[in-house]
Design goal:
Elements lengths: L7 E5 L4 E5 H9 L2 H4 L1 H26 L9 H4 L8 H7 L9 E2 L2 E6 L5 H9 L9 E8 L5 H14 L2 E4 L9 H15 E2 L2 E6 L3 E2 L1 H10 L6 E4 L1 E2 L24 E2 L3 E5 H9 L10 H8 L6 E4 L3 E2 L6 E2 L5 E2 L4 H14 L7 E2 L25
Parallel strand pairs: 3-7, 4-5, 4-8, 5-6, 10-14, 15-17
Antiparallel strand pairs: 1-2, 8-13, 9-17, 10-13, 11-12, 16-18
Helix pairs in contact: 8-10
Length: 372
């Protein structure tokens, strides 16, 4: 067995090994430029690294939406790719936090570019009673818009400053899940809040009553509150088609998309794990799937009339989906005149209480007309 001391090195040859003494090794090392002037080399390397880091920081500061106020951010976010949520997380990490808007409730509307009238009616009716500790965004995909429509959208944004414009999203039903995820990531990194309400631009909300309910809700964390379904069957055709759904024979329990509430920690989970999430066509189905394995307070509330069509009108409804602009004005005027949501209560289809003690396929039996 050949033992070498620290003064020698080994070089392989065709016939064996050759031992090089330390003096030879030092002469060879001395022929390398980095070894002849080590201090100059170190300074050169550090200068290059510093220049690279400084350039990177200046680039991030120029696009970092946390370094602008909440309305200016809607302009800067247009230059960020919504699909590259990895870069979002890198730029908006906790170490890069800037000034935050601090509110109790954030309202996120998924809206379409052409729905200016719906947005204006919401602003003029129930959103006009928005509390000072509430913040709202109308989320619109503005990719590939016509010049006229883009001009209209920009004018609306200049006037109200309450829109989240996603430049690289071509707005469509298939883009709803991307818009939802973009909204949750954006809100998480730019707003400090307690609860988030997601709804559509055809949803009417008794905002003052909902605000009071949220102030008294016992679950400040891990809250997923809405009107749940657990026995919906995946569609293979039509606008609700889910070609990539392979998890089971039905969707996992989810709150229907006309309106639901999430606590801030649930939004944090989604935002910080966005790069791992599967995006299905239906945004409410996607959300239920993302949250399926979490230990949450899933609160089924019949006062959320948030199905694909309204169940009617009930004075207890906190959130009512599928409302025309005429219906919104009627509800707002009725509340102003009588403090009641409905001029006349009526029911066009039965509701149900979700039974969490049975399999999801048996969860939702419509057998009691007294349930609002």
């Amino acid at each position: 067995m050949l033992v070498l001391d620290h003064l020698s090195a080994v070089l392989p040859t065709k016939t064996g090994v050759v031992l090089l003494p330390q003096a030879v090794m030092m002469r060879r090392a001395g022929s390398l430029p980095l070894c002849r002037r080590p201090l100059r080399s170190v300074v050169y390397i550090l200068s290059c690294a510093g220049a690279f880091i400084l350039g990177s920081l200046m680039t991030l500061m120029s696009v970092d939406p946390m370094r602008c106020d909440i309305h200016q951010c809607t302009e800067k976010i247009k230059r960020i790719d919504v699909e590259d949520t990895n870069s979002w997380l890198g730029m908006w990490g906790h170490n890069n936090k800037g000034p935050e808007k601090n509110v109790f409730l954030v309202i996120v509307f998924l809206s379409a570019p052409v729905n200016l009238e719906q947005r204006n009616v919401i602003r003029q009716t129930w959103l006009s009673e928005e509390k000072s500790d509430t913040l709202h965004f109308f989320v619109v995909g503005v990719g590939s818009l016509s010049e006229d429509l883009n001009t209209t959208i920009q004018s609306e944004q200049k006037r109200f400053g309450d829109m989240l414009l996603l430049n690289n999203i071509i707005d469509s039903y298939q883009a709803l899940t991307k818009k939802l995820l973009a909204s949750l990531v954006y809100v998480h990194y730019n707003v400090k809040f307690r609860f988030l309400l997601k709804c559509d631009d055809d949803t009417y909300v008794q905002i003052s009553q909902l605000h009071r309910e949220l102030k008294g809700v016992p679950y400040k964390q891990r809250l997923y509150w809405g009107f749940f379904d657990g026995r919906a069957t995946p569609r293979k055709t039509g606008p609700w088609k889910e070609a990539d759904w392979v998890l089971c024979d039905s969707y996992l329990p989810y709150a229907l998309g006309g309106g639901y509430i999430l606590s801030s920690d649930v939004v944090t989970f989604i935002a910080t794990n966005s790069k791992y999430l599967k995006l299905y066509n239906n945004e409410d189905v996607s959300l239920g799937t993302w949250l399926a394995a979490l230990d949450l307070h899933r609160v089924h509330d019949t006062r959320f009339d948030t199905e694909y069509k309204s169940r009617g009108c009930n004075n207890d409804y906190l959130v009512t989906h599928k409302q025309s602009t005429l219906h919104m004005r009627e509800k707002f005027n009725s509340l102003k005149a009588t403090s009641l949501l409905c001029r006349e209560q009526f029911q066009v289809r039965k509701s149900y209480k979700y039974n969490w003690n049975v399999p999801p396929s048996q969860c939702c039996v419509r057998n009691d007309s007294s349930i609002p």
